[in-house]
Amino acid sequence: MTRVVIRADASPQIGSGHVMRCVALAEALRARGASVELVGAGIPPRAAAALDRIGATLTHRASAAAGDVAEVVAATRRGDAAACWVVVDGYHFGADYMHALGRAGIKTAWVDDLNVLGRFDCDIVINPTLGAERCAYSARDETKILAGATYALLREEIRAVAERIIPRARQLVIALGGADPQQLTAHVVRAVVAAQLPDCQVIAVIGPSNPGNASVRAAAEAAGVTVVHDPADFPALLAQSALAITAAGTMAWELAALGVPSVLLAVADNQQRGAAAIREADAAEVLVARTPADVAPLTRIVRSLWSDARRRDAMARRGKRVIDGRGAGRVARWIVDGARPR
Q: CA 159 to CA 183: how far, in whole Å?
């Protein structure tokens, strides 16, 4: 049996995207018979429930500090495994963390979006961003570079919903991730309401780690917008939407796989490359929005898309061509079997 320890954190500042894509990888690893333990801080309840459901272990940490190499190495040695791996996902883990794992003799897979560590002395580099296959990574000759949307880490529930035929409703969903670190949801609600979209139900989703619950509800209630908090069947809610607005992180790939046309808000540096690539594929509109003032053009963008069903349909088709939802399985096969999936 292969044992895999995954190290990732979530918080209102970090967001929950790193953890959620690691949950997707955990699902795929368990499907291939691996023993999986996720070690992390701030793990959202829905992620914890998903790990429990697949028989993966969750070890909570008190903080997201990266000084826990000894704990992670010890976790790999629990039980009797033929091979042990650590998967690391988070910008607060640096080259020192990678090298410490290497010195301990642990096989390491590093989930990376930015290619800023200089050199990757690990066994596998995973960059699941569209267009990442054009990145030139400095690594050992034997290091496997799994780059591009082929390796997008999406949960099994996304893939399952994507394979169903779900009628589109006249609804627009606003969902800026599990935490919305820039606290833009209320401003997005106001921008969408200002577009005065005909025959449109607007739904604002508040993620489980979002501290701005009160401000979102105040903006929504003033405009008759429906607010839902961490909905149980979130993929189905997205799939039945005619348009979605989200941050250009993990949820961007989920929407593409679901065939939901979207406006992506690039709210951080690490989202720029992927957002540019998905716009280049004409699978989404993109708006750089780091502050509330940056959201203003959204009114015009949303009004234009809502009035153009043909354009939305084309975006949906292109998104499904770009993201097939099988990336986590491909990565899991590399880790467990060490062979390229056919």
A: 29
